[in-house]
């Protein structure tokens, strides 16, 4: 009878210990509930005790979790529809608040879906399509991350990042986008052609200007050389005249014959002074 009583006592002690001890894994954090109300949070791994039958333990992940949304249609500032496939990384940083607001990870995924979709639609609506897919993609998603993080704090969740996996456009909008791209390329080509024509005109005008300057300079130099030549010819002529006036008179008479006699009819007397060099001596 004594051993039976001892066995019962040992059984009760073991039974109570089983309901009083709990282990927190390194990847988990625990919330202790007393009559359904949270009274304590345990984040460090180890062996812990609780009040048996009065308190219960709920475990939550301490590691970073992933939120993977369904592809979402949003409209950009320039009224173009696009399909964004994004994901987010988050962790539970306030287990009690998390328990009160969303209860579990399934509830957290649903609330994050509302928050991130809402912020994505709002932020994307402030940017043009080309900015989101190229130049300002990082800026856009940093803004989505920041605004989503602020709203998620109310759920006991900390969002570390929101990023885009892929972007596409609805099939019915592809033609509009292609037409827009073609129009943009044509506009750029027209701009380049206009710039080329302006440059060609500038080069042509510059060449014409240089041409006028060169021809003017050449004409000036030619006139100077011609003037010097005429002056030199006049000087030589004056020298010849002073040395032999009779010979000069003979040359001028020959020039007169050449210019007047061929094809002309002159009525003059044979003893005219004009023919004095044609008479026989």
UniProtKB/TrEMBL annotation:
Residues 19-181 form the Band domain. The chain crosses the membrane at residues 6-27. It comes from the Bacteria. Its main location: membrane. The keyword Lyase does not apply. Keywords: Hydrolase, Membrane, Protease, Transmembrane, Transmembrane helix. GO terms for biological process: proteolysis. HflC and HflK could regulate a protease. Belongs to the band 7/mec-2 family. HflC subfamily. This is Protein HflC. It comes from Dictyoglomus thermophilum.
């Amino acid at each position: 009878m004594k051993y039976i009583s001892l066995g019962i006592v040992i059984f009760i002690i073991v039974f109570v210990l089983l309901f009083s001890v709990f282990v927190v894994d390194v990847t988990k954090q625990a919330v202790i509930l007393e009559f359904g109300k949270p009274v304590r949070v345990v984040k460090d791994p180890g062996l812990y005790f609780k009040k048996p039958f009065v308190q219960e333990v709920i475990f939550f992940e301490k590691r970073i979790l992933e939120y993977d949304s369904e592809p979402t249609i949003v409209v950009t500032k320039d009224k173009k529809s696009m399909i964004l496939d994004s994901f987010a990384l988050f962790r539970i940083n306030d287990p009690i608040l998390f328990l009160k607001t969303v209860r579990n990870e399934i509830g957290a995924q649903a609330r994050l879906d509302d928050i991130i979709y809402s912020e994505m639609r709002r932020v994307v609506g402030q940017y043009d399509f080309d900015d989101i897919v190229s130049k300002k993609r990082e800026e856009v998603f940093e803004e989505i991350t920041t605004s989503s993080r602020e709203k998620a704090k109310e759920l006991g969740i900390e969002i570390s990042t929101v990023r885009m996996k892929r972007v596409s456009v609805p099939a019915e909008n592809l033609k509009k986008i292609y037409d827009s791209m073609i129009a943009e390329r044509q506009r750029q080509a027209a701009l380049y052609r206009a710039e080329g024509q302006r440059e060609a005109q500038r080069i042509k005008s510059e060449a014409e200007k240089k041409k006028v300057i060169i021809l003017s300079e050449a004409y000036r130099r030619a006139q100077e050389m011609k003037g010097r030549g005429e002056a030199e010819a006049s000087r030589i002529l004056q020298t010849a005249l002073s040395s032999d006036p009779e010979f000069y008179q003979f040359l001028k008479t020959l020039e007169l014959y050449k210019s007047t006699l061929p094809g002309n009819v002159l009525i003059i007397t044979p003893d005219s002074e004009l023919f004095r060099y044609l008479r026989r001596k």
